[in-house]
Amino acid sequence: MLQDAGFNLYGYVPNMAANIIMLVVFALSTIVHFLQVVRYRQWWLLLLPVGTLAEVGGYIPRLKGHYHPTLRDPYVATMCLLIITPCLFAAVHFTVLGRMCTLFPRKYTLVRPVLVMPFFVTVDVASLVIQGVGAANAGTSDSAEAAESGSTIAAVGVGVQLAGYLLFFVLFSIFYYRIRRDPPPGLSQMHTLMIATMISSGWIILRSIYRLIEMGEGWDGVINNTEWCLFVFDAVLVFFAVTVYNIVHPGKYLPKKFSWNYNPDKDGIWWENKNENELESPPVAYPEKPLPVKEV
């Protein structure tokens, strides 16, 4: 039996039409992302359709909330899903950067490429856990004090995510600047993915800023109790972020199979291209310096 809080948990009556629209567009994006993953066979990119499907799951309970805004379970479900789901997209951004860094010589990256993905994914998982705990505590609390405590915890999680994203954006910008200043072979096909990733991550950064401000106000704040803010600063921004990857899918550009190699002359690591994706030209592998020929 669904628990009735006895008051409107949303602070408004969820708009049926707007929530159906967001549900449908995320469902369409899910289908496209899944087909793209199957086509390019890069299974780690299932994070994208799983994330967009979770967005769909976040808007379904709001339809119930339209008729029964006092029911606690649908409110908790929608709040938790919509708050933590972008962490899945963050994991994709971080992984894309980590893999792109390994395609080119070490001189282009501020830190060693092998450290990029593990560090940022760890930050992402930490923010996911903190946000989930905070959102669940706030949604199931029976007092204003407990709700504010949960809001604070969730805000810390969003803050961790935002800090990680800003650091990611700085490293990515430096990486991009260095590559544009001294273009290496094989850059042309990666340039499109670089721009797409910067745009997609930029939308999530803006969304995280909104969520941080919202949670800073608390669950009784004006932002949290104003529905159009959710659609404009969360739903639309997240949709833009995932749609960018529908248009420029990472699976089309990143090597499908790889092996780690170390080149002492380049002081870096790159992916050995064994990609079966339909590329106009494969990424350039930086060859080992040829051994000197001994004169007889």
UniProtKB/TrEMBL annotation:
Major location (coarse): membrane
Entry keyword annotation includes NAD: no
Upper classification of the organism: Eukaryota, Fungi, Dikarya, Basidiomycota, Ustilaginomycotina
Domain of life of the source: Eukaryota
Cellular compartment(s): Membrane
An example Gene Ontology CC term for this record: membrane
Keywords for this protein: Membrane, Transmembrane, Transmembrane helix
Protein name: Similar to S.cerevisiae protein RTA1 (Protein involved in 7-aminocholesterol resistance)
Pfam families attached to this UniProt entry: RTA1
